[in-house]
Design a protein that fits this description.
alpha/beta, two-stranded antiparallel ribbon, about 40% helix
Length: about 525
């Protein structure tokens, strides 16, 4: 019997976490423009989406930002929408949202609080997909999803409430036994080798031994401050379609990554440089601490861009009128009490108390109706913030996607993972580089005058992520991939940014790959 490829076994069949750092894609715009359209392909999570929207803090010229998210599997799409919905709950404290977000992002087992949050988010997302309510602050377009796909996404949200019979630890152990095979009993030593001989050589020295060992063996990357990890993270428990002896079988389990880790998206850098300080050649803080600070920075900036709802003048006047009516009722009540006779029987007294109780309940309901609404959809943006539109798309990339005329010559920035870096001629059709093309904006309110610019100033940026942090890939294979993509990009007429020399230049020795200089992304200008 042929052994399965360890690369496929380790990386998994369902991409639920990215293997590169979060990018602010607005920083790659080549023109000063008010409307920007971004395409993110197979990112695995929403790190690029959040980082790009955070970039509105710096790039205040942008009035309309449209982000198209393409994923190959619907589980990843549902998971991203749930995380975006959690971020949109601006009424929750930043620290609480950041901790819950990372618990969902990187832990196979989550706290009971996070588990209940996932169920709540799933219900809200299901209501959104069924077009009953819209709990999102940002504009989420559903028109690019087919009815069949929406029905499948609704079923996925229902699975968030089915934790009976889900033993996440056992699922992970099964995957680990399949991956290590006869080396299973020595897995801690193998993980230690991956840390020091692979991960740290690639420049990820901030990932500590303890947290990487804990994630590889227990599935917990970001431990919570309070509460134990006792519930399964149902956002990463997915269904794998297969066949047994010709019979179709759907197997529910953990089919994600068990080798590389969820630390790269948020845990390698942050604005607070104190967390990146080194002492005696080692980082003082861990990748988990950096991830927490990074998420707090992102959420804090989003809070500054999107502020609380304030009641309008009509609502304030309605509240004043309501309070005046209440005062008049109180005065009438006092007058009635004064005019009542002292010898009133007990039945009348009980009726009076009942009337008082009803009036008190009516008062509470009326005062509650005049209070400002606390639903997240009653938030409004500051003037410097723009209209954000996120369009989830479930499509094969690139050819079927590029064949649709709507997407041709539409995008200012395209970010693709390394698995989608094929058929570059199709990708080239998506770039905005024609003077007659309309600027990216799915909003019908965008003006035609601001959407067309001279052909000399229009140009796009293509970012292709590399498999730098894929630990089971040899460094020579990574270098060959980078060189192949650069060569194919030049053949399409793209201009690449200057690439570092990835080979060690030592006199008298055979050239070897310098893992530290392998880029995590390749940037082309079209």
């Amino acid at each position: 019997m042929q052994k399965p490829d360890p690369l496929i076994v380790g990386a998994g069949s369902c991409l639920l976490k990215g293997n590169t750092q979060a990018l602010n894609l607005l920083s790659f715009l080549q023109n000063d423009q008010e409307n920007a359209t971004v395409l993110i392909v197979n990112a695995g999570d929403c790190r690029h989406v959040l980082k790009t929207i955070q970039g509105l803090k710096i790039n205040k010229k942008i009035k309309s930002l449209n982000i198209y998210v393409v994923e190959r599997n619907l589980e990843s799409l549902v998971r991203q929408l749930c995380q975006i919905l959690l971020v949109n709950h601006f009424e929750l404290p930043v620290a609480e949202r950041a901790e819950t977000f990372l618990d969902i992002q990187g832990n196979l087992l989550v706290s009971e609080y996070t588990f209940n949050q996932v169920i709540s988010l799933g219900k809200q997302l299901r209501s959104f997909l069924e077009e009953k309510t819209n709990p999102f602050l940002w504009n989420i377009e559903r028109k690019r999803l087919k009815f069949k796909e929406i029905d499948q996404m609704i079923e996925i949200t229902r699975d968030f409430e089915k934790d009976e019979g889900v033993n996440a630890s056992e699922m992970l152990d099964t995957r680990l036994r399949e991956y290590y095979r006869e080396r299973y009993d020595h897995r801690r030593n193998l993980v230690d080798w991956d840390i020091h001989m692979k991960l740290h050589d690639l420049g990820a020295t901030i990932i500590h031994d303890t947290e990487f060992q804990r994630w590889r063996n227990e599935g917990i990357a970001f431990p919570m401050r309070e509460g134990g990890h006792i519930k399964p993270n149902l956002t990463i428990i997915t269904t794998l379609k297969g066949s047994v002896r010709g019979t179709a079988v759907n197997s529910r389990g953990y089919w994600g990554d068990i080798v590389n880790g969820p630390f790269f998206g948020y845990g390698l850098e942050c604005e607070d440089q104190k967390l990146l300080s080194v002492r005696d050649g080692k980082h003082i803080h861990s990748s988990g601490q950096v991830s927490m600070q990074h998420m707090r920075e992102i959420l804090g900036d989003l809070d500054n861009l999107f502020v609380n709802y304030t009641p309008t003048k009509d609502e304030e006047d309605a509240g004043k009128d309501g309070s005046k009516k209440e005062e008049e009722k109180k005065e009438d009540k006092k007058e009635k009490k004064e005019t009542k006779e002292k010898g009133e029987d007990e039945d009348n007294t009980s009726k009076e108390k009942e009337e008082e109780r009803k009036e008190e309940q009516a008062k509470q309901t009326s005062s509650a109706s005049t209070e400002p609404k606390s639903n997240i959809m009653t938030f409004e943006r500051k003037p410097e913030a723009c209209q954000v539109t996120i369009v989830p798309v479930n499509s094969l990339f690139p050819q079927p996607f590029a064949e649709k005329k709507y997407f041709q010559r539409l995008f200012d920035v395209i970010c693709i993972d390394f698995t989608g870096a094929k058929e570059l001629d199709c990708i080239s059709q998506l770039c905005k580089r024609d003077g007659n093309c309309v600027s990216a904006s799915s909003s019908s309110s965008a003006s035609a005058s601001s959407s067309s610019t001279p052909s000399s100033s229009l140009s796009s940026t293509i970012i292709i992520e590399t498999p730098k942090f894929m630990l089971d890939l040899a460094n020579e294979t990574k270098v060959a991939f980078v060189e192949k993509i650069v060569s194919d990009g030049k053949a399409q007429g793209w201009k690449e940014e200057k690439m570092p020399n990835m080979m060690k230049d030592e006199k008298g020795k055979e050239k070897q790959v310098d893992p530290l200089k392998i880029p995590s992304k390749i940037v082309f200008h079209v």
